[in-house]
Prior knowledge:
By secondary structure, this protein is mostly helical. The protein has helices at 14-33, 35-42, 49-53, 63-88, 95-123, 126-156, 162-186, 188-193, 195-219.
Amino acid sequence: MELNFQERLPELHDWATILFAIAFILIAVNRNVFTNRFFEFSNLAFSDKYLKIYKDGNSITNSFTISMFIVQLISFTFFLQLFISQFQNLKKNDGVLYIQVFSFLTVFILSKYLIDKIISTTFHIEEFAEKFNLFKVSYRTYFGFLLLPINMILYYNNIEIKWIYIFLAVLLFLFNLLSYAITLKKHQNLLTRKMFYFILYLCTLEIAPYYFIYYWVTKN
């Protein structure tokens, strides 16, 4: 009797499970520690009360915002990895790819934030920049918060329907545009006084980085 041995390499999901657990633990802690704030944040799609209450400059650096920002990074990185795996024939459980995407996303956002601080100080629009960043961070964190359970469903199930990923990507883009529109509308009085600096600020930080990323992705 001839025995044929075949190596079986099980797919490891442990790292993903740990990251999902960390994200939900952070959400649970925030829900219990910052009960009122979390309640207002969870209703951000239906009410802007959260943005009216927590609109001071310190809100962007407090523990609630930072911890929810970590949840946002975990969620967006999972979505980008799932999106890439669908259209580039890569494994969705590739831990190295996740680290690469997470590192790129973190460096991109933090670098953009630091450059934002420098430019806003140079143009003397710190007040607007702080409020603008707070609005953007709040809405993007909220979308990442909603996207997290969807990422879990897509990750742990073999759903190879590309239009779902395209729909979510378009929804993310439209959600971004909506957050910009709401922010600009709420600060239109401030913008009219410093329109020239705002245009430079917008082109430098909100258009050029995404154009270069698009150019790099399409060329590579």
